[in-house]
Amino acid sequence: MAPFVSTAVPEGRPKKIDRPPWHGSCLGQHETSPWFEESLRLAKESPRKIPIPPGHTAQSLEVALRDLAEILGQQWVKFNDVPLIDGDYHAVPLSHDSYHILDPDDLVPSAVCWPADTEDVVKTVKWANKWKVPIWPISVGRNLGYGGSAPRVRGSLVLDLGRRMDRILSVDTENAVCLIEPGVQYVTLYEHLQEIGVGNDLWVDVPDLPGGSVMGNALERGVGYTPYGDHWAHHIGLEVVTPTGEVIRTGMGSMEGSECWQLFPYGYGPHQDGIFSQSNYGIVTKMGMELLPNPGGVRVFMAAFPRREDLYQAIEIIRPLMIKKIIGNVPMFRLGLQDASLYKTRDDFELDERGIVKPDSLKKVIEELKTGEWVFYAVVYGPDEITQAKYEYVKKQLGQINGTKFYQREDVPPEHYLHNYAHYTTGIPTWRELDRMKWVPNASHMFFAPVSANSGQDAERQSNMCKKRMEEYGFNCLDTFFIGTRAMHHVISFMYNRKDAEERTRALACIRALIDDCAKLGIGEYRTHLALQDQVAKTYNWNDGAIMKFNEKIKDALDPNGILQPGRSGIWPKEYRGKGFELWGGERRSASTESEAEISFGSLA
Ligand SMILES: Cc1cc2nc3c(=O)[nH]c(=O)nc-3n(C[C@H](O)[C@H](O)[C@H](O)COP(=O)(O)OP(=O)(O)OC[C@H]3O[C@@H](n4cnc5c(N)ncnc54)[C@H](O)[C@@H]3O)c2cc1C
């Protein structure tokens, strides 16, 4: 086989990425897909009653939703009375959070609607203000591990923007930027670039799984693997519908006739974009996104470290390589066990009585897979001479750690993750990460994702602390550090069997304990699941929680009726504050109320 340098993907860039025939959001229509039969997993059977949002009765909600159906068209509004089918990554349900950590019937909408364009979004927002119904926009709804498509307030209306607003509005090939709508997925943007003949020159930064929305992920401040791996940092210009129904464009887009909306991010005066990420201050309907120009060569490699203690020294060595941009991407430092979970299930290991992998058993698997206690995946970009020199330099630095082994693609077997990594780092989508979802039966995961300094000390204390706490609760700590220039996303996959209520409760209690452990040391999460957002928001407590007071002032000013995503990121509108909507842990929540139990609306059509 030819060496893998220069293109890193001599196998070429596929025009299309294979996926199952059913790859989209679903509201109870899974049965129509023959493929789906295999993976159909019922969380709650039909018939279900429609959940009612706060301040409504069954009757008032029904009148309101029928009004919306008049506005958007009968076929674009549906009640959520379908069975709760968990589906899987490809067939993602709109009825509930398929990776539920609470009761599956807890965080559920009353209905879903499908706006066609910005105008429809404006109409829906005005409708929500008129009827005081909470609304929850999603782009694609694959926010799995953080709440999926589910709303925070039970009975909200979900706006599934992605179904009909999925256009790639422009690709400026000279300036390497595009303008997209919410439903554009990484995989569809990639395929579009291939189709218009620029796929080799302009790359999309893809995260682990490419079925997410480019916009939704950026709004969540998600991460990928190329130099553009900080997705929010590489958006450029927004169109936003405010909670009272005005349409604004940010940056240069706020000037009539400007040609620089996707070229210069700031415009004039205050820069508003930041308040629309991880917030409930607006519905984004268009977003500019930078595309990565092909850097003219790539060298992908893996370093494997033999001891758990090597984490400290390795991160100390990597920090200057990041700050000086010798390593050009967002590299990944991953626990050997987390790496092994791509190839093995938990039951392939010998476990202790708590279900924790025994160290000797892990050692055997590490030897079999020829990895290490920690593995480091990274890439250097540029022409061969440059990547060769950079690679030698990185090897020399990391080689100071005794026993470190280095691998390039030609050194590993075809099923090795390093080949997938070469795809990620050159913007080619892959589904490989789904292999991890076999770790336990009915696997779901939540991510516990604290921010770490790029320092051996911080990484080591976080990793050891999380391992100890998780093992105490009977969970294997599967950590990965996504390394930025000066800080890391320390992302721990919290794998649990969603069918096992006891295991779910234990997982939630454990993650709550971790949030508290971390907060005591001044460690905060970059993103969290819906059920944990109040707790995490509260840990950002400098100066008596000044930041939340500021957030609430903005919320009250922009959203006087409190209709847009109440509770997102722990920000509650004034009508909701202190009325028992927050989730702090230990609540006994019953999924449905008595009034809900009585109603069933029937069809809107
Ligand atoms: C195995 C696995 C691996 C994963 N790996 C990664 C990874 O590498 N990197 C990563 O970042 N994530 C990862 N995730 C998490 C998640 O799947 C992705 O982040 C995904 O892109 C988020 O879903 P989405 O893009 O469909 O966004 P959505 O679910 O549509 O939205 C995400 C959030 O943003 C809000 N929102 C969406 N659109 C709008 C809008 N237009 N206006 C206002 N608010 C909006 C929604 O209310 C929601 O809260 C992984 C998940 C799994 C299961």
Molecular structure report:
With 605 residues, the chain is of the alpha+beta class. The protein has three domains: 1-164 and 540-605, Uridine Diphospho-n-acetylenolpyruvylglucosamine Reductase, domain 2; 168-293, Uridine Diphospho-n-acetylenolpyruvylglucosamine Reductase, domain 3 (2-Layer Sandwich), CATH 3.30.465; 298-531, FAD-linked oxidases, C-terminal domain (Vanillyl-alcohol Oxidase, Chain A, domain 3). The chain is built from 15 helices and 23 strands. It has helices spanning 36-39, 58-72, 118-131, 186-195, 214-219, 310-323, 336-340, 359-369, 384-398, 417-424, 456-472, 501-520, 533-539, 542-558, 594-598, and strands at 24-26, 42-44, 77-79, 84-85, 91-93, 111-113, 135-138, 157-160, 168-172, 177-180, 202-203, 235-241, 247-249, 283-290, 292-293, 298-305, 332-335, 374-381, 405-407, 443-448, 451-453, 478-483, 487-497. The strands form six sheets. Strands 16, 17, 18, 19, 20, 21, 22 and 23 form an eight-stranded antiparallel beta sheet that branches. Strand 9 (168-172) and strand 10 form a beta hairpin. Helix 6 packs across helix 11 (456-472). The protein starts with 23 loop residues before the first strand and ends in a 7-residue tail after the last helix.
